[in-house]
Write a structure and sequence with these properties.
158 residues
Length: 158
């Protein structure tokens, strides 16, 4: 979370928050459930709002600290962060893995043709993997470019 938002907050999931009036007007969550805390911290950081962590004393003795399964909680928060980053930064989120896929596909394709040139037999497994990597890479890169364009147009209109 810290690497995504740049926020110095150590405990992003405590649920104990205080917001200024300015923050309440600027931070309208789109998430529901366990990911809302992460979304609000990401939005606050993006909008340049001051985020301060204040230590508190808590006594969890004899209390059930969570009403959700920890695995569900973690996956919900992770999916919220991934969704937020993919919407805010679609070109690096989709485009970089797409470029990696294209490069892997080209390298594997060249290896397949080298094998064909030296032995006279084309390795079908290597060829299929090369084509699949290229197609996946082209698809991801295209998605990144299309989403980047749409989000840029929408931001300019608002």
């Amino acid at each position: 979370m810290r690497s995504v938002s740049g926020s110095p907050i150590k405990d992003t999931e405590s649920g104990f928050r205080a917001y200024s009036r300015r923050a309440l007007r600027a931070l309208i969550p789109s998430e529901m459930g366990m990911g809302v805390d992460s979304e609000l911290l990401l939005k606050a950081s993006e909008k340049g709002l001051t985020i301060t962590e204040v230590p508190i004393r808590a006594n969890y003795k004899d209390l059930d600290t969570s009403t959700h399964n920890p695995l569900y909680h973690g996956l919900d928060v992770l999916s919220s962060v991934i969704k937020y980053v993919s919407i805010r930064h679609p070109l690096p989120f989709y485009g970089l893995p797409g470029l990696v896929g294209i490069i892997i596909g080209v390298v594997l394709g060249l290896q397949a043709f080298e094998i064909f040139a030296s032995s006279g037999e084309f390795p079908p497994n290597l060829g299929i993997i090369a084509v699949a990597a290229d197609l996946a890479g082209i698809l991801l890169l295209s998605i990144g470019i299309i989403l980047f364009t749409l989000i840029t147009v929408l931001r300019e209109r608002s």
